[in-house]
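Final report, closing paragraph on structural work. Over the funding period we assembled a curated collection of sequence-structure pairs, and we close with a single example.
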Amino acid sequence: MRICVLGAGAIGGFIGARLAASGVQTTALARGATLEALRTHGWRVQDGTELLTAPVHASDSPAELGPQDVVVIAVKAHSLAAAASNAGPLLGPDTIVLTAMNGVPWWFFDGFGGPCAGRRLTSVDPHGSIAAAIPTERVLGAVVHMSCSAPEPGLVRHHRGSGLIIGEPGDRDSARLNDLVAVLKGAGLDATATTEIHKEIWYKLWGNLTVNPVSALTGATADLILDDDLVRGFCHAAMLEAQRIGAVIGCPIDQSPQDRSEITRKLGAFKSSMLQDAEAGRRLELDALVGAVREIGQAVDVPTPYIDALLGLTRLSARVRGL
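Its predicted structure, as stored:
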């Protein structure tokens, strides 16, 4: 199997390194300092005191890499349109595209019933260019449950977890789904197949929806956010709005916001991915994580005053700081 990682940052680099270390032929589409680091050192993952290294064929030319069996997309959502436009030479007749990204993906309502069936989200794919470049029939969705950072280009620091929940957009079982899960498990990743990928995406989003933007807005780690009763109450109010939206579109959540926050609290004083981006001066993933939820709420007539406030404040802060 030939697997290409498109987005060789923290999550993409971790997945690529584990695959390559297990003997899977991996390539990476990269550029700049990350490309040079991969060409010089190969994949590198710092896991505690251990440094995992593995070979990779890295290039900035998709034509040089050629058609792949699987393309793992692990870019930030706002970089996806550009990445998708370059992906053509990587896609053979049967190439699988695994979307290992945060937030609501462009394909979310394809093959999924309910009041938004077939709806295109303008907050995620405003011009339809992503859907045109990567048809949904190629896609397997993935929910990432792992924490990694990239202290320098081409080097990944693994903090905790190696979970990947993978499913077909049509919420069905398939041979290609089970085959890819087996390959990922063989690489030591905690991969599982699901026939409810939409619910898994919405549940993960439910936790990220508030902690990520609040951390970017305030600079606070997750423990400080949850320790402040006013901020925690605001987050829970926004989560209730998202929970009501989920119930309407077919992604119900049985937990309470308080229950979900207790799970987050057990992770300690961690920096969310959005806070890491803010501190590094990188653009924030607001559209896929917050804007899409607001858009879906409008589509199904669920008011979102707390989500609106969260989006507006974080968006304004990001604009002022050039993010």
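Residues 197-218 form the longest helix (22 residues). The first strand starts at residue 2 and ends at 6. We thank the funder for supporting this effort.
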